[in-house]
Amino acid sequence: MLADWRVKFRPIVKQSISNAVLDRVSDGLYRQEVNTESNIIVENKIDDKIKSKEIITTDDDLKSFEYIKEMLAKYGRNVDQLGYKDTQNYFSIYVSNLNNWFIRINLG
């Protein structure tokens, strides 16, 4: 009687265990794929943010600096210590020290 029970249920139990193991492995592989894809998406978003934060000094910015430098020189001001700093939000012109700016320009 016990042997009959084993023979009867062995294929069912074997198939159930096989399906359970297969489901576990499939879930694990699927999670790895999803995590890999989400990592790729996050990396792409980070790359886009980095690219969008690059500061590009345009010709208009440089022309503005040269124009202001020429105007100051024309009126007898010393322009040797003039400099500029470009940021994402503005272009500033300073005298001898970044903190000593006297004009900020936003051309775009």
Structural notes for this entry:
The chain has 108 residues and is α+β, with helices and mostly antiparallel strands. It has two domains: 1-54; 59-105, no CATH class. It is 62% helix and 14% strand. The protein contains two helices and three strands. The chain has helices at 2-52, 59-74, and strands at residues 82-86, 91-95, 101-105. The chain has a three-stranded antiparallel β-sheet with strand order 1-2-3, with helices on one face. The longest helix is centred in the N-terminal third of the chain and has 51 residues, at 2-52. It is rod-shaped and about 110 Å long. The mean pLDDT is 76.
Strand elements, count: 3
**Strand proportion:** 5-15%
Shape: rod-shaped
Strand order of the largest sheet: 1-2-3
**Euclidean distance between termini CA atoms:** 89 Å
Weakly predicted, low-confidence segments: none
* Helix fraction by DSSP (H/I, runs of at least 4): 55-70%
Order of helices and strands: HHEEE
User: How would you state the average pLDDT, rounded?
Assistant: 76
Integer-rounded radius of gyration:
34 Å
Number of helical runs? 2
Number of domains: 2
Q: What is the makeup of the main sheet?
A: 3 strands, antiparallel
Helix/sheet category: alpha+beta
The oligomeric state is single chain
